[in-house]
Design brief:
single chain; 308 residues; alpha/beta; Indigoidine synthase fold; eleven-stranded mixed beta sheet; 11 strands; binds pseudouridine-5'-monophosphate; binds manganese (II) ion
Length: 308
């Protein structure tokens, strides 16, 4: 076992799927600890794993525990994360060595989940929303480590687009510079998490999981390092009102400025504030969209394995 792999603890079910070259889908854990309240977070974590299984793939929820990067969690571990909630440390790329060496519990962001997935040999990952360039990012330089990870790590990320707490235009510019394709699933419009619309366009509209799988294979066979964003719009029946969301987000950002919140706290603060201001509505939408993403990610993972 290499030194690097000494830090990985792969669940036997995931290990078996990887050995048999079957489809595996990575799932993040920040959504469990920080994204939703208990018990909906636990119910959603289980729902996502089942959704992946229904499509013939194996789920691997990722978190840092007891000095290991766990690839695939037991139900007890999922429950532990769900109950601890925000007491668990939000872990992005730079936090990984601290959390592991000090044997703390870390819930992985998109960046950290991608890093872990690639180490384990998992190519497809489903989440809700990714981080990006914050509004006023040209002054604050608040740019999520998710974007840099997408630039270098070979994992496809299925998300519901980019939440409008961020500057979507600047985020797209950053991704273009870093060579990260942004694909719209059956749409050319980039979705904005709670809404199908955003006013921004994806690079390409892709019509099927098979077409996406072919694009991934082409990219990686050529050695074009880095990830791909697959932006899957929230199902129409669950989408929220665009203007209301814009207003809500504006309010959350004003509150953030007033309180002087910066750094790794800024995203959780904004997400929390939006949740509070939209009451239960955003939670139902959130659950519906991640489920939708888990399904598409599993279909892409299955299609990818078939074409090999
Ligand atoms: N955006 C969302 N929902 C989320 C996140 C972002 O719409 O849950 C979380 C993800 O875990 C993402 C992280 O990777 O926030 C980005 O945090 P930061 O901006 O501090 O990099
Ligand atoms: Mn940030």
């Amino acid at each position: 076992m290499s030194q690097k792999h000494a830090y990985l603890a792969i669940h036997p079910e995931v290990q078996k799927a990887l050995q048999n070259k079957q489809a595996v889908v990575a799932l993040e854990s920040t959504i469990i600890s920080h994204g939703m309240p208990f018990p909906q977070n636990l119910e959603t974590a289980i729902l996502l794993e089942n959704e992946v299984r229904k499509q013939g793939a194996t789920p691997a929820t990722i978190a840092l525990m007891n000095g290991k990067i766990k690839i695939g969690l037991t139900e007890e571990e999922l429950e532990y994360l769900a109950k601890k909630g925000t007491e668990v440390i939000k872990t992005s790329r730079r936090d990984i060595p601290y959390i592991l060496s000090q044997k703390l519990t870390g819930a992985t962001t998109v960046a950290a989940t991608m890093f872990a997935a690639e180490k384990a040999g998992i190519l497809v990952f489903a989440t809700g929303g990714i981080g990006g360039v914050h509004r006023d990012g040209t002054n604050t330089m608040d740019i999520s480590a998710d974007l840099q990870e997408l630039a270098t790590t070979n994992v496809a990320v299925v998300c519901a687009g980019i939440k409008s707490i961020l500057d979507l235009g600047l985020t797209l510019e950053y991704l273009e510079t870093q060579g990260v394709p942004v694909l719209g699933y059956q749409t050319k419009e980039l979705p904005a998490f709670y809404t199908q619309k955003s006013g921004f366009t994806a690079d390409y509209a892709m019509q099927s999981p098979e077409a996406i799988a072919r694009l991934l294979q082409t990219k990686w066979v050529l050695g074009l390092q880095g990830g791909v964003i697959i932006a899957n719009p929230i199902p129409k029946e669950h989408s929220l009102d665009f203007d209301l969301m814009q207003k809500t987000i504006q309010q959350a950002i004003e509150e953030q400025k007033k309180r002087g919140i910066t750094g790794k706290e800024s995203t959780p603060f904004l997400l929390g504030k939006v949740k509070e201001l939209t009451a239960g509505k955003s939670l139902t939408a959130n659950i519906a969209l991640v489920k939708n993403n888990a399904r598409l990610a599993a279909q892409i993972a299955v299609a990818y394995k078939k074409q090999l």
